[in-house]
């Protein structure tokens, strides 16, 4: 089953300040993750500062594919996640270095021999993950939660993975906000070799 393409509308300003549509159509950046066939990143937009620059600048999705948001910025993307397969679960950990390298953050992978899922990872950000279509299971170091359309996860820099046990693709919308760990959490992560 194929999920429909994303339609993006980008607005801007004319020289006289009047609002106009700058772009309306398909996303210019849609990329399948080679090491995880069927996983597709649909890059919507990103901002590179706080407060976010409100300008007529170039499309920020056309640069290199990056997992985390820019420093003091945000990133918005849809991700299509295929069902987990027995082959992926058996060989997934070996592929993660290549997968996270393709999405610009090799250090994000935290997978170890005892990890509950081969896609375990962590970023120093607050991520809003919204299930749009299908089902997903949020996997943490301790515990799991089944998510359905309309479920929203507020992921606060925790070690996690997205497991698709439904047998069909799932589409999630992610909005990532750059963050900094609270000093007590940073110290705990460093003490346990998890930072």
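Sequence proposed for the structure above (195 residues):
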């Amino acid at each position: 089953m194929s999920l429909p393409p994303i339609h993006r509308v980008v607005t801007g300003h004319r020289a006289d300040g009047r609002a106009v549509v700058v772009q309306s159509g398909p996303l210019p950046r849609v990329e399948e993750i080679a090491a995880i066939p069927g996983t597709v990143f649909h890059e919507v937009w990103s901002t590179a500062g706080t407060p976010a620059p409100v300008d007529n600048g170039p499309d920020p999705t056309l640069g290199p594919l990056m997992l985390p948001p820019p420093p003091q910025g945000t990133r918005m993307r849809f991700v299509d996640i295929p069902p987990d397969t027995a082959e992926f679960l058996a060989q997934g950990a070996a592929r993660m270095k290549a997968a996270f390298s393709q999405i610009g953050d090799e250090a994000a992978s935290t997978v170890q021999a005892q990890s509950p899922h081969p896609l375990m990872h962590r970023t120093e950000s607050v991520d809003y993950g919204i299930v749009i279509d299908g089902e997903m299971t949020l996997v943490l170091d301790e515990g799991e939660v089944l998510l359905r359309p309309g479920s929203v996860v507020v992921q606060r820099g925790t070690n996690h993975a997205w497991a698709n046990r439904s047998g069909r693709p799932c589409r999630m919308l992610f909005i990532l906000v750059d963050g900094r760990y609270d000093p007590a959490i940073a110290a705990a992560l460093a003490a346990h070799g998890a930072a």
